[in-house]
Design a protein that fits this description.
Chain lengths: 602, 602
């Protein structure tokens, strides 16, 4: 088995040298020092490498089993590994101190998340979902709900889930049918829920004492569509003293049960449940936030969840890199320059390896840049600074989610290819990474939905202002690169990408405001546009990395890390960016064939 | 379950309208009429749709099991489905009448292969390997071997395997260590083989009475490297009257046994075996062709096997299209133009559907064009015509193999994406297609090996002449398109692709002959170059399709097939080709970062 080594060196490079620890200078992070961050990264790496990573393959092989009665048995070791995480206090590292967390910057929390997902994505989903529940409750829950439930979620002794999807309601949540009936004749301020939710990640398990389900449901007489949907908290076990059931007994076990678990392509260690609410008297639930605003409340939280899914993709991509490099450095086939060689010596294999490495580096840098902007948006003293960062975050998040996960699938697939025939054998481990990665472009809003969010919503509402401001920063980087003769080639390539992106932006904005074609038309351009943005922003980050690495080399550093980073940057900008730039031509080609296309015609 | 419907209409379009049944006009195909071809396609579709396709999902779920003693149990129904194929005479359709086959053109045989692989790729591998054994024996076997073994292979009552790979010898077959010892002191002209072969497709099963293993092995005192390797035929069961074993008994069961089968990402219905030769007295084998020329003999046959793997990828891509279209036309989510809509109405989903369809159409047209050139290369009366076609085939085959299979993985992955969350659930069937497709870029020479074969070998040895002649034909198509005002936009896009390809070809040829960088340097350019060639040739075929479809529409046809084909062509040329064209920029960027890259550095 290939051991996992969380890429602490690269995290430190991005946090310290690319982002210059900007988050630590913000109000609220006075306690966090570079030394503390370094210690946190080292400690998280230990948990990831030594506790979580060794269970990744066995968890995939064993998978989860539903027991009679509705319980779910996790793969061996998962309960202990989750508890090691919770007892280490990791669940609260990004949660504010006011709520009982450790209040570390989002950049640091994101780095830790990536390590854990790289070590064991299926297990990493459990705290990822809990983080969503914490967000939802912290932002929208009543004081009573927060007091009762938040501390246990933050310490990780209880976990959370998100219950959105129903068989007829996936990307279109306006179709949710689960009912929530208020119970004025019963003691307490609660509802009873009836309905079925599908695809509930970590919906049932024994790793925590209790599970808190956040559930979208419809109140009686609520209007059709989005505005009739509210958000409810439905605990698996009710608190002592909670409302009693119709039969008079204390309702300790709530009326929610795992009806089945899915047999999936990957993430076998993560139980994906169908939850049945209200097979008897109704599952007791508490309203979170305002009635009728459930979707809004859910979306507050989803923005961050989407960032986390992007980070998850990067974690898996990192592990795919490590597998592929280890194999290529060990496997002897053919000759290079006349003598026996490992396949890492063959230029065509090097292309695959460097492509994997350069892309993973670039995606990581962009995701952490976005996390740093999240820190600014929340913590900067200046209102305008916060607003500007928030505007960037809004544009960046769909890109981080969709682009990172699409690329992660490609990187994991390349990882399989590097292994040749061994890559297709499950025991090797490369195939699992491809299977696991393949969910990330789908859940938490498909990548198509992300593209529509970017091109149809985020760009149109500010006329592209936030993206244009980002592009201006990319252009500044091209100028800095151009000032260094050794990097002038990169400057030219990146500048060409900037020009393409500006031209494409004009077209996409025109589409969105064209009264003839209507607002739907922009949908046709959304996916190629997001891909172009992703390529240019990743190339930008690698351009910045090249500046830093080049300066280090010029200053006399002989750390091979910098030489490798320069190669990554060169590849990302010269050989990867051109593929993204092609999306301008795709956008300019017009979309007549899509508009005319009748899928039923043939 | 989504039923499979072999795309007979599109095969007829390509064979009749794009290729104008050119193969039927060749000497040797006098018996084959368009009516006969049509009947063959319809009958093959029935076998594919009704017998093979229904076993695809169950075969994946059940997989193969190795029994104690070395036997392998296939999934339920596979034996019967294979026998229906063999008894229908399908195994011999592409084999010459002189050898007992039906002597139909390769274009027709390829169409039938695609249908069967689309229906059930795991099962399709069995006859695919047998076809390789037939080729090897027909070209290189002695008359005695041919007489004894060919008829049973052609009728399909016996099957064949290819035994190349050993743990230390994959892409680099010079490392083969299996030994073949001549036995002059025993009766008959045979060898005894000792060694282990891995990744042997359909290496053991009960669907046929006997299995003929074609095995690469080294004779005693043979030189190191490629020239020491010979090819042997090792039957699972010896013929009555064959040499007796050392213990004096009749060696009816040969000394070759299935030691294990692999647990793979996909094609679970295809047993991938480790075969152990000579655990006792040695497996009796017969030399095929000349001693020391085993690799050459194997490669004769491999060219065709590579074409078949490309076709296999297209079959799986076709099935992925059918799954995705069926789901998208059924699944209601969101609104389009103000009212409830199936997701096929959303432009972003249409992009995925049309991208899948356009690419599959294009790949099919190119693969069948290549098959038609194979027919010309073998059957044309004129020597020069045969030689020119053979030269094209040599260039086209690595493209058909690598480009079709890389694209098939992407198409199958898009198919998963169209299904949203359901795509990740194994029962849906979309994920299986991705898992199955993923082997095709690996086996029968990895796609990296194909790219090296094209850029490093095929192009360099004729200075790009055969490819240039193909590009000239593409250019002729751009002129035909330009003559039709409705298609002039396609003409411009295709012409731009031609210009890129010509420029890239110059660069790649320079690399191959540059004494400074040495012959290895071209490896760095091989994969992007193959991708560029694939995109341009596929766009070419769709340009030709657009000409035909446009003429049909102008002539008053209201067959929706032609309108759909025009949309496919428009998408392929305007929206898919630009992504391929980007490879010119990749190639022009130079490969310094690859040359400098040290995979061990970080």
């Amino acid at each position: 088995m290939i051991p996992f080594a969380a890429p602490v060196r690269d995290f430190r490079f991005v946090l310290e040298e690319l982002l210059e620890h900007g988050s630590l200078a913000l109000p609220g992070f006075e306690e966090a020092s570079p030394d503390l961050v370094e210690a946190v990264l080292e400690e998280a790496a230990r948990l990831a490498n030594e506790v979580w990573a060794p269970l990744n393959a066995s968890g995939d092989r064993q998978g989860c089993r539903r027991r009679d009665g509705g319980g779910v048995t996790l793969p061996d070791g998962f309960i202990e590994a989750y508890r090691a995480y919770a007892e280490g206090g990791w669940n609260g590292i990004g949660v504010s101190e006011a709520l009982g967390g450790q209040g570390l910057p989002e950049v640091v929390a994101s780095a830790v998340q990536e390590m854990l997902h790289g070590a064991n994505m299926a297990l990493g989903l459990c705290p990822m979902l809990t983080a969503g529940a914490i967000e939802a409750l912290a932002h929208h829950g009543s004081d009573a709900l927060k007091e009762t439930y938040l501390p246990r979620l933050i310490e990780g002794s209880w976990t959370g889930t998100m219950n959105l999807t129903e068989p007829q309601a996936g990307s279109d949540l306006s179709r949710v049918r689960t009912r929530a009936v208020p119970c004025p004749d019963e003691e307490g301020d609660h509802y009873r829920l009836f309905g079925q939710k599908i695809f509930i990640t970590w919906g049932e398990h024994d790793a925590a004492e209790n599970i808190l389900h956040l559930v979208l449901a419809r109140t009686p007489d609520a209007p059709e569509g989005n505005r009739g949907i509210s958000l409810f908290l439905v605990p698996k076990y009710l608190e002592p003293g909670s409302p009693v059931g119709a039969d008079g007994s204390l309702g300790e076990r709530n009326d929610v049960v795992c009806a089945s678990i899915e047999h999936k392509l990957g993430i076998h260690g993560s139980p994906t449940c169908t939850l049945s609410f209200g097979e008897h008297d109704g599952a007791i639930g508490y309203l979170v936030g305002e009635e009728g605003r459930g979707l809004n409340h859910m979306f507050t939280m989803m923005n961050e969840a989407r960032h986390k899914v992007g980070v998850q993709g990067i974690g898996v991509a990192e592990r795919a890199c490590q597998h592929a490099f280890a194999y290529a450095l060990d496997r002897v086939q053919g000759k290079a320059r006349g003598s026996e060689a490992t396949i890492s010596e063959h230029l065509d294999v090097r292309r695959m390896l460097l492509s994997m490495r350069a892309r993973t580096d670039a995606l990581r840098a962009l995701a952490l840049y976005c996390a740093a902007q999240l820190d600014v948006a929340r913590h900067a003293a200046d209102d305008a600074e916060r607003a500007a960062a928030q505007a960037r975050v809004e544009v960046l998040i769909p890109v981080v989610k969709a682009f990172s996960t699409d690329q992660a699938v490609e990187i994991a697939s390349l990882g399989v290819q590097v292994h040749g025939g061994m890559g297709y054998i499950e025991e090797t481990g490369a195939a699992q990474l491809l299977r696991d990665a393949r969910i990330a472009p789908i859940y938490e809003g498909t990548n198509g939905i992300q593209a529509l969010d970017l091109a149809g919503r985020k760009l149109q509402r500010d006329g592209g202002a936030a993206l244009t401001s980002l592009i201006d920063d990319v252009e500044a980087t091209t100028q800095a690169l151009a000032a260094n003769p050794a990097l002038a080639g990169l400057a030219r390539c990146l500048a060409a990408g900037v020009a393409d992106l500006r031209a494409a932006l004009v077209l996409v904005l025109e589409q969105g405001t064209d009264p003839e074609s209507g607002p739907d038309a922009v949908q046709a351009y959304a996916t190629p546009f997001l891909a172009l943005v992703g390529h240019v922003l990743c190339a930008w980050q690698m351009g910045r990395a090249a500046l830093v690495a080049s300066a280090a080399v010029e200053a006399g550093s002989d750390d091979p890390f910098y030489a490798a980073k320069l190669q990554s940057a060169d590849f990302a900008i010269r050989q990867w960016l051109p593929v993204g730039r092609a999306q301008r031509a795709v956008i300019e080609a017009g979309m007549e064939s899509l508009a005319a296309f009748d899928a039923a015609a043939r």
